[in-house]
Amino acid sequence: MLYLLHNLTIKRMQFNTLSYVSENGPGVLTVSGQVQNYNALAQQHDIFSKSEFFKNLEFSSFNLVDNGALLVTTVDDLE
Predict the structure, then answer these.
(1) Cβ contacts of residue 62 below 8 Å, gap of 6+?
(2) pTM value?
(3) Whether 73 contacts 28, CB under 8 Å
(4) What is the tens place of the pLDDT at every residue in 12-33?
(5) What distance lies between CA 56 and its chain's CA centroid?
(6) What is the CA radius of gyration of the chain?
(7) Largest CA distance in the chain
(8) Could you tell me if residue 68 is left (phi over 0), alpha (psi between -120 and 50 degrees) or otherwise beta?
(9) Which of 75, 70, 72, 69 is nearest to 61 (CA)?
(10) Rounded to 10 degrees, what is the CA torsion of 57, 8, 74, 79?
C-alpha cells in the first residue's frame, strides 16, 4: 500500500501522517499533509480518483498556511 501511495503522489504533495484501520473487511485510509496550492490539490485528486485503489476519496480539513500552501486530510474506504 505504501509503495502505491508513493507512486500516486505528486511532488507538490507531502504527507505527514498516515493511518490505516481495518476491522473485519475493507479498511479506512486517512492521510494528512501539505499541498503546494489549489491546482496541485486538484491534480492530486484527479490522480487518486483514477486509481482502482481509492473507492470513496474525500479531501477535507483545508487550512491555508502562511506560505500559501494548504494543509489537507484525505480519507478513503478501501475495498
Answers:
(1) 70, 71, 72
(2) 0.83
(3) no
(4) 999 999 998 988 877 888 999 9
(5) 11
(6) 12
(7) 42
(8) left
(9) 72
(10) 40
Cα separation of 68 and 57, whole Å? 24
Q: What share of the chain is helix, strand, coil (3-state, %, to 5)?
A: 25, 40, 35
Q: Contact, 20 vs 1, CB < 8 A?
A: yes
- Measured between alpha carbons, how far is 47 from 27 in angstroms, rounded to an integer? 20
Residues 6+ apart with CB under 8 A from 73: 30, 31, 32, 59, 60, 61
pLDDT tens-place string over residues 33-47:
999 999 999 999 999
